[in-house]
TrEMBL record:
It comes from the Bacteria. It comes from bacterium 19CA01SA08. This is Uncharacterized protein.
Amino acid sequence: MSVPDKQELIELFEYARPRVIQSMELRHCPHAGFYNPVDDRCNFCHQGLECIWMNQNDELVDLEQKSLEELKQQLLIAVDFVDSSLSPHHLSRRKCQCDNCNWLRKVQETLARLP
């Protein structure tokens, strides 16, 4: 199998982004989901990691400028996020064919091909 290129990794973000955004409660966010590291409300917010991830990986960020290692690390965070949102009946993910499990397998297979 060939080593994945940047574009192949970047395409995997297309599935994770909406999942992260949909999980966020932005109704009372004074920054509309844009993480502000100098605001204590952001530093102590229960959605801090999601906001940080989105601000580093949303559609406005040029992921092409990131290294393969940076993309890998950001995808691993997305994997943890999607994985943590699965219900207990997903214990046998190898057999499950839902979108989340299919994406998780695809990311695993892609990252396994990295050197």
